[in-house]
Amino acid sequence: MSDTRPIAVGDIGPGCSKRDPILVAKNVTRTYGGINAVDVEHVEIPRHKITALIGPNGAGKTTLFNLLTGFDTPQSGEWQFEGKGLAGVSAYKVARLGMVRTFQLTKVMGKLTVIENMRLGAASQPGESLWRALLPPLWRSREREITEQADVLLAKFKLDTKRSDYAASLSGGQRKLLEMARALMVRPKLVMLDEPMAGVNPALTQSLLDHIKNLKAEGMTVLFVEHDMHMVRHIADWVVVMAEGKVVAEGPPEDVMKDQAVIDAYLGAHHDVDLADSEGFEKLEAELEHDAESSVGMEPDGVVGRRIDERKEQA
Ligand SMILES: Nc1ncnc2c1ncn2[C@@H]1O[C@H](COP(=O)(O)OP(=O)(O)OP(=O)(O)O)[C@@H](O)[C@H]1O
């Protein structure tokens, strides 16, 4: 049965408190040269929910992911995952604690087979090195267990027929699926996905969406960065909006899309467009076609945030 209790406690707005947060970050800052890439005063991610982190290009979404998961170091800040402080904790240990992430550009190992990539995902499970070093016979049985777990996941993600293929031979969408499946090898509690839909062929889009919804159904919490607003509206329970490094809005998707701060962050001068309405995207697209200077664009499939000149280069 779905949990219909309110996600937030008290007033809804940037940095608001959650009834049951799995991740709480305070005063996290990261500058590059003179740029405040991330300057997040307070943000809480609700447990057992799907939260979308949105914002225009350069808003600081990926940098925030990197900081929280130990792939980058902030100038200041603290954050707790399940009540445990993670500042200064390495990416490897963060994954072992149950907080895993995928990357905008997948990091699967092209020269390894699909099953080898999956086995590597288990390397960050608690106790792995101890088993291997101290108890070789037990380690062999552990290896069998890892392979079985990998095969179950590969079947679930419909990659079992690719088991012995090199990861390099997979399509972009299949690599995204493999990266997600591999992340699940550590049996995480929080799964952070950086642009899961980018570069995914439309035939795989529904499958990816279903997999993300399944993560929640299986008791995991999901936080994902995405430019595809149709996806955000379709699967997110909660949306956090960043612009210029800060959290500028948050709330349920239907409310956030109507929020003036979100409209300002995404649309600049195009204030008359309603992001809560799919026709609004078409209108925005039409307007931007006549606005070559705009730094915010939209793909026909609903991708907001690409620069117009980037889109022309890609075409
Ligand atoms: N390694 C880096 N060196 C210098 N500047 C960086 C670096 N990484 C990010 N930045 C800058 O920090 C800001 C935030 O970038 P970030 O990639 O986090 O944004 P984003 O919201 O994820 O954007 P996108 O949606 O395009 O992925 C940008 O101004 C970016 O140019």
Automatic annotation (TrEMBL):
Query: Where, by residue number, does the polypeptide cross the bilayer?
Result: none
Q: What InterPro entries does the record point to?
A: AAA+_ATPase, ABC_AA/LPS_Transport, ABC_transporter-like_ATP-bd, ABC_transporter-like_CS, BCA_ABC_TP_C, P-loop_NTPase
Q: Which residues form the ABC transporter domain?
A: 23-269
The annotated region (Disordered) lies at: 288-315
Keyword Hydrolase in annotation: no
Provide ranges: composition bias, Basic and acidic residues: 304-315
Q: Under which name does UniProt file this protein? A: ABC transporter ATP-binding protein
Q: What is the lineage of its organism?
A: Bacteria, Bacillati, Actinomycetota, Actinomycetes, Micrococcales
